[in-house]
Amino acid sequence: MHATGTFPEIPLFDLRLEPEDIEAVLDVMRSGWLTMGPRIAEFETVFAEHLGTRHAIAVSSCTAALHLAYLGAGVGPGDEVIVPAMTFAATAAAALYCRATPVFADILGPHDLSLDPADVERKITDRTKAVTVVHFAGYPAPVEELKALCDERGIALIEDAAHAPDADVDGRMMGTWGLAGAFSFFSNKVLACGEGGILTTDDDDVAALARSLRSHGMTSGSWSRFTRETTGYDAVGLGYNYRLDEPRAALLLSRMRRLERDVARRRELTLAYRAKLARIDGLSLPYSDTDVAHSTCYVMPVVVDDESRRDGVRRHLRDENVVQTSLFYPAIHEFTAYRERFGTVSLPHSEHIARAEITIPLFPEMDEPTQDRVVAALAEALA
To answer: At what angle do helices 62-72 and 90-97 cross, to 10 degrees?
Structure first.
């Protein structure tokens, strides 16, 4: 089954739900218990075991997970958090929620859209409380180098692993290298349930803080009172409503069983894309074939060498070939809200990618004829 409605002939992504997914959600509906309960707890256990981490705390979004991760790192007023500009705005916004300042660092370049450790080191000050690394498109960033840098300076490393629920470096999963990791289960993600996220950590104190703050700082929840584990509750801090619900947890549990299969298919399609796209003049591909084996291949980014042609190429794909594309991402430091607040920042690599990148369709159910149509459309647009 897949979503219905008016879509491009070749969409950017295509979410398919299997009958067992729908049945898992219906079981929750029949149970009459829709808020945080046993399925949340089960999913947290399964996800933590998948990553090999001590704790996984399900929350309402990756943004919520990032906010709680920053709070767990002690980020507060007057502090700085170094973040890439080439990411979704939430990576920086969550620092502002803590009344801290996001400090934007550049990426390595068009060959690798990861945060540049050398630029991070240049941006560190005595106010730097944390560095947030993004595993862009599901490709592991240089976490070993960043972890060593942060450990040496006594700074927390936070992983925005929204794109990377099954990516690794030397067998160690993303989301387990820093103090905390934040994952997304938004509708178009590798593991999707609509809205949702999870915070991962090996730190008991960070986990306890996240569990408390996700539900208004309360000492117990509705499920524990329903099962008579507790009879009342206290509020021990100012928390938030960052709870995930049972239907989404059930959907995640069901889809989790296919995660490795889906990622394997994404890798297969990405390697096929890379072979086909390498023949097109005027187009560059970030990362390498070797990198694919360690990535979730969440999206397929391509870079138009002449950035002035990027928008025309996208129009050609949309209007002539009914192919949906996207931009991953506009650079955060160029958004009005951030430019007005923090002024002009020069990040040449991020700015080039923001003007030259196109994200083309990629989803596990894509077949070779569909992929060939996308490749042909790109070749035609750049000819």
So the answer is: 50
